[in-house]
Write a structure and sequence with these properties.
Residues 107-157 form the RNA polymerase sigma factor 70 region 4 type domain. By secondary structure, the protein is an alpha+beta fold. The chain has twelve helices and six strands. The chain folds into two domains: 9-92 and 102-160, PhyR, sigma-like (SL) domain (Butyryl-CoA Dehydrogenase, subunit A, domain 3, Up-down Bundle), CATH 1.20.140.160; 169-283, Nuclear Transport Factor 2, Chain: A.
Length: 301
């Protein structure tokens, strides 16, 4: 819990700081931890020595996140089943807000996982938050030349792997509704009609709840898996509702008002190319309660 005045620079920029940490880590819980650590550093610093509070805070959060990312990558190598980023409830106009732009999509966060920690930090600061090479060099204690080279390499890497999907949210919702209805009735033919030939599905249970331990490929495998999950008798008391998850229309599953999972579909030419389902109970904190950056300030501002 952060206790500070309403005009404190940390509270003023906490949404930006969380957004940067979340994109660097792909984890709501880890991003919240980073902001708590950054607050402790901010509370202890002599404010008269800080000329530009926003730059100081971004630098602090970025470097803390880089340290955590290195250890997080080691943990993910031993993770049970596919590792997916933690989903985050966003706002309907997220694509129009710099801190919650398209780069927060689960598909993009997965691509960012393929970068080195330094490349990821440079890419996020440069391409998402529009920091100059000079500002990034100062934040990361690197030369401008080194930052420029890293930025070029990271941008090329992301461009080569960045998915190109349909952006029409109305179409996404329509296809998701049809997909859910077909799965619930066990109609495999209708499900397969909605899936692209190269469709892939990932589900993250973290070894805590039942989920596919490997990615599933092809309409037949994906359809049988989806029906097997959504048509189970124990799903009878589960409520599925549309929600804005990571800047896109997705499905939020809950039981007795408590989130138990989230589903994101990616479409190309109106057909489902990728499905990502987050089921790990320890990775659902971003789906309920106040926004994470607001939770940090409760009891303070």
């Amino acid at each position: 819990m952060i206790d500070s005045g309403a005009d404190d620079p940390f509270l003023e920029h906490r949404r930006l700081l969380f957004s940067a940490a979340y994109r660097l880590l792909g984890s709501v819980a880890d991003a919240e931890d980073i902001l708590q650590d950054a607050w402790l550093k901010w509370a202890a610093v002599d404010r008269t020595t800080v000329t530009h509070p926003k730059a100081y805070l971004v630098r602090t959060v970025t470097n803390l996140a880089l340290n955590k990312l290195t250890s997080a990558q080691a943990r993910r190598e031993a993770y049970v089943g596919p590792w997916l980023p933690e989903p985050l409830l966003t706002e309907p106009d997220a694509a129009d807000v710099a801190e919650l732009a398209d780069s927060v999509s689960l598909a993009m966060l997965v691509v960012l996982e393929t970068l080195s920690p330094l490349e990821r930090a440079v890419f996020v600061l440069r391409e998402v938050f529009d920091y100059s090479n000079a500002e990034i060099a100062q934040a990361l204690d690197k030369s401008e030349a080194a930052v420029r080279q890293t930025a070029h390499r990271a941008k090329a890497h992301v461009a080569a792997r960045q998915p190109r999907f349909d952006t029409d949210q109305g179409r996404r919702r329509e296809v998701t509704e049809r997909f859910l209805a077909a799965c619930a009735t066990g109609d495999a033919a209708r499900v397969m009609e909605l899936l692209a030939p190269e469709v892939t599905a990932w589900s993250d249970g973290g070894g805590v709840v039942r989920a596919a331990r490997r990615p599933l490929y092809g309409p037949d495998h994906v359809a049988r898996w989806a029906i097997g999950v959504l048509a189970k008798p124990e799903m009878a008391d589960v409520v599925a509702e549309f929600a804005w998850v990571n800047g896109q229309q997705g499905l939020l599953f809950s039981r007795d008002g408590v989130p138990i999972g989230a589903l994101s579909l990616e479409l190309r030419d109106g057909r489902v190319h990728e499905l990502r389902t987050q089921l790990n109970p320890g990775k659902l904190s971003g789906l309920s309660g106040p926004a994470p950056w607001e939770r940090l300030a409760q009891g303070g501002a």
